[in-house]
Specification:
The chain is of the alpha/beta class. The protein has one domain: 3-Layer(aba) Sandwich (Rossmann fold), CATH 3.40.50.720. The chain has 9 helices and 7 strands.
Amino acid sequence: MNTILITGASSGYGLETARHFHAKGWTVVAAMRTPREDVLPKSDRIRIVPLDVTDADSIKAAVEAAGPIDVLVNNAGIGMFGAFEATPIDTAREIFETNTFGVMAMTQAVIPQFRDRRAGTLINVTSSTVLAPMPLVAIYTASKTAIDGFTGSLAHELNHFGIRVKMVQPGYGPTTAFSRNAGSLVERFIPEAYADYANGIFAMMTQPGAHTLPADVAEIVWQAAHDKSDTISFPAGPDAVALSHAKAALAA
């Protein structure tokens, strides 16, 4: 029976991915900064473990509690909208600690068991902003673009040991707690000089259209976990797929 460890599994994409894999018969280790027993079904194939990806001791304890795993999904992340000019560098460091260094630390913690078995899959959840950078998310985009490069390089580095490395790129998910949390930072980091411009951007983002749903991401993570090709990047959601196709067309 296969086992998957998913970070940031208390809501949004991570939670839906946990539900999806459990429904498919996998054992799911759902890692959450604040563990919630009520969001997943009671099952002997579900374990909920506390995890703060910015804390080395927490990572060590979570990986030990998970035991042998077949797939790691680095999903935990922090969203942020704001004018770069108005964003303190300390805030930027907080974003990178979770979105970038947290991914790296989790990955480093599980590579040894994958290398010893010469098998395993690492899946890093980034964002469609790595396909088409958007305004007012410069720091968030930078934190995710770093993981884009990290994933590509690591895929080559670990292929020698039979470890597959993939990246899932979700589009904009307005229904997720991730987006709501990002929006809560807006008033702090949108100065008056940017207000009219920012309001136009937010109006465009919230228009009805083809956005990404948690189920879209869960299905693409499932596909990435089973993919045995050299494909690294997997856009998730209709908006992300459209951006991926547009980027490919421009590069042709």
